[in-house]
Amino acid sequence: MDVTFLVAGSGSGPTLVLDEPLSFWGGVDPASGMIIDRAHPQAGSTITGHIMVMPAGRGSSSSSSVLAECIRAGTGPAGIVLGEADPILALGALVAAELYPDRICPVAVADDYEAATMAGTIDLVPPAG
Amino acid sequence: MLDDDDRAMLHGQAGPQVALAMRIVSGLARASGARRLLDISAAHIDGCLYNGQASLDFAKRLAGARVRVPTTLNVSSLDLLHPDLIRSDPETQGRARQLMDAYTAIGARPTWTCAPYQELTRPAFGDHIAWAESSAIVFANSVLGARTGRYGDFIDAAAAITGRAPAAGLHLDENRRTGIIFDVSSLSTGLKRRDAFFAVLGLVVGARSGGLVPAIVGVETATEDQLKILGAAAASAGSVGLFHMVGITPEAPTASQLTACTLPQIMVTTDLLSAARQRISADAGAGHLGSVHLGTPHYSANQLDHLLDTLGGRAVRLSLYVSTGRDVLKTWGRDDELAALGVTIVTDTCTYVTSITPIDSGMAMTDSAKWAYYAPGNIGLQAVFGSVEECVESAVTGHLVKRDDQWT
Description:
The structure holds two protein chains of two kinds.
Chain A: E1 3-7, E2 11-17, E3 28-29, E4 34-35, E5 51-54, H1 63-73, E6 79-82, H2 87-99, E7 107-110, H3 113-118, E8 121-124
Parallel strand pairs in A: 2-5, 5-6, 6-7
Antiparallel strand pairs in A: 1-7, 2-8, 3-4
Helix pairs in contact in A: 1-2
Chain B: H1 4-10, H2 16-31, E1 37-39, E2 43-45, H3 53-61, E3 71-73, H4 90-105, E4 130-131, H5 134-144, H6 155-162, E5 164-166, E6 178-183, H7 189-192, H8 195-208, E7 213-217, H9 224-237, E8 244-245, H10 255-260, E9 265-267, H11 270-280, E10 289-299, H12 301-311, E11 319-324, H13 326-332, H14 335-340, E12 343-347, E13 363-366, H15 369-379, E14 383-385, H16 388-397
Parallel strand pairs in B: 2-3, 2-4, 6-7, 6-9, 7-8, 10-11, 10-13, 11-12, 13-14
Antiparallel strand pairs in B: 1-5
Helix pairs in contact in B: 1-2, 2-6, 3-4, 5-9, 8-9, 8-11, 9-15
């Protein structure tokens, strides 16, 4: 999988492909890792341990701290692969990596987003050097 | 991307906290495609609202640093002036207090308001600033002509500590130009005078602008409070961080400049407003009304005056909460008059982010599109949207009063 890292790190797992952008604030419950935005097509799915594949981020800048809280609580994704760069999610993962260095959640933009949605499992490997 | 001072901060010459802050600023710059950082002259931090343990862990890591620019603080999860109002459990309140203390300890002012441009600080036209809180961001960019990105948790404090922000987004000229036009000239002048019109217009603009900068044409006059109301609604229904209003806001193009461009244009009709209004308002017949919520964003002194005038000495039968900044309240000085009529004044926080209203108290009415947008998800109350006059009549009579003829 060719990607450009916004937050570098290793992560692998089955993909959770989101059909629409998701706001973590109001959209994900950090206690359970479940998508709670009832209007979202993947409502009820659990992000924990998955590589989230999503077209873009959405909504409130408070999503940064909700993603960081998920990573802290151990309910976060194994990684996030985006169709386009999202500063808010990058920020959440970046700060979580600073605070909880044993729980890295890489965030990357796929060179071929369509391929990412078809992959089934994704193994994110940080660039050498 | 970084200059010598930035690199010195990054390498820890100003201490590990500043190095952490610079890693966050430069990390965001990378993620947003910025080629350099720029100096900021002020910051507004919203990370002081308790959002879980991670927000507190982060704030504690900053201990020992000092903000480099004048920095104000957004609403918190407590009301320090009226502590008995808060219903959250003591443990959560304790962590919320630790979070507030962590931010004042790095030199941010204990302002606790989402409207720092009221009574406190006014960035000048063209100033680069780093503000968080979506309604404050859109006010600073649109009404003051200052320049801030759409910042939020973590980056707000990191920018305050380093005095730097990525040169990206709304800091740059090319991202401040009109991309879509909303024409309200077909609507009646009477309608366009009402505060509630600006709230609902904001919803339409927010939902239909996508990532583009909207320009509104056809508004003859607007008060600063009305621009605040419009911006807060637009930033709730969409990702608007800047709007222009022709003839009103400082960076707005002229009508003839807009005509010369071929931009997408939306004619705003009463039908469009009505649909937007219904989308954020619960079915008024769905239950009894239990409380009324004003002051999101925090009310100005003029709005507090108008509230007192509208009450006209009548006491409220329902709980009527009005949120405002502690500094606005101090200057205004008539809180005893409101309290005598049974109005509950909330400072330092807001009734849609903090547990203040009992959840079993029935439906809630508000004059704020933002409150109506977020309260159902945040605190589990169903919201009915109405004008401040409808809200006051409802609170005074004890039952829901709606005047739909105001919308033509």
